[in-house]
Amino acid sequence: MNNQLLKMVKIGGNIINDEDALCSFLKDFSEIDEPKILVHGGGKRATEISEAMGLKPKMIEGRRVTDKETLEVVTMVYAGLLNKKITAQLQKLNCNALGLSGADANCILAHKRIVTDVDYGFAGDVDAINAEFIKVLLQNNITPVFCAITHDKNGQLLNTNADTIASEIAIAMSEFYEVELNFVFELKGVLENIADKNSVIQHINLKKYEQLIEDGVISEGMVPKLHNCFNALKKGVQKVNIGDASLIKNTTNLFTVLSIE
Amino acid sequence: MNNQLLKMVKIGGNIINDEDALCSFLKDFSEIDEPKILVHGGGKRATEISEAMGLKPKMIEGRRVTDKETLEVVTMVYAGLLNKKITAQLQKLNCNALGLSGADANCILAHKRIVTDVDYGFAGDVDAINAEFIKVLLQNNITPVFCAITHDKNGQLLNTNADTIASEIAIAMSEFYEVELNFVFELKGVLENIADKNSVIQHINLKKYEQLIEDGVISEGMVPKLHNCFNALKKGVQKVNIGDASLIKNTTNLFTVLSIE
Predict the structure, then answer these.
(1) Test the B interface: residue of A22, A81, A89, A158 with most B CBs within 10 Å
(2) pTM (two decimals)
(3) Are the beta carbons of A165 and A139 closer than 8 angstroms?
């Protein structure tokens, strides 16, 4: 494939919650020369604002349920406060950022998660990405910044997993670009031993991934994260990396590279 | 001028606060065939959420001051909740809406209002509109939906008057389009007698406007609104109308048309 490189980065709560870390990350991100896309998750601000408003988090089997009030708060915090703060910071850094939810220009179409055992409320599962429009933005030197709010094209906004959004956008954009997808999180990579922060597994292919799950090395939150990674690789994304914020600065060689073979 | 027509509509709190009125307005708006732009103000939801969070509105001489906490709330509510709800509703109506703040793609550059007698806090006065990018959106059949949040390109978001935003965008777009700017508010138009809701002055030119101010017929909130209207007309906007939501449906002849001559 001889397509142009598109760099995608997904950041989570650990960076969003720390003003200095976010500032430093955005500076590094703004210095990426290639066309680029940022996807951001939530962070503790939504919980703080829910609490300030006197809302009680609704949990089922340890998982948060997006009821009507929670959807309002996450829409406000993710699509409003965080997305616009990040966008304004990137503009300061001369990166022509444009904040987007899935409803904007129908970028991310989703459906309300089907109720089987548990009703997660207004949680969205992604159906389609408007890759043509995202391409128009990139061609106009715009850097899309996605929050994790989608819609069902029937007027309903939906709370959606940010890792999944990053993977689905990466897959859709791989029709036009050679896509490198970077998941930035609190660890240096996928760890061999959770107690040793430097025990990064530097390369995981599909076979090793299946072995690591079988051996219980990958568990809990890493399972859906790696599922998203391999789903992206299987569906056309060229490169997927997992690591901490130094991954973007290229100052580290310690991170996890995922590949099919 | 032989340019294509661009219809702009600005809506305020009276429509945003009433779910049925908003729904009905958005249906009419979505049926406008021409390229179109929506600008929306705030409404009472920001006040409700401020109160729910235990914030006390800070007022100086009867005017609300945008302190740091208020800026967070209006950013959440205007750019998050309201903007995305409106966008999702328009998407349902097959209008390819894209919600924007002024920070997004540097659409509306502003500066923090200079402190003279009163410090209004994080209130923004508009300096420049990115008309080229807005044109790219319109050419891609996107309908921009602007909230009244701007930025200073130095990382600071700012709360800005929605009427002013509508006028400034209309002026900037008049370089490329024949612009019709419609201000939708709670009255049928500019009233001769505030006690008679049907005493609409159907045509006001610049000379009459000055006379009406001198006679005290136009006062309070109508003064800055009409100032914005005439500023737009003087700077290239072709048509400016003021009226209630029926203005958009073209089911009424009772509204105010403003013109220079």
Answers:
(1) A81
(2) 0.96
(3) no
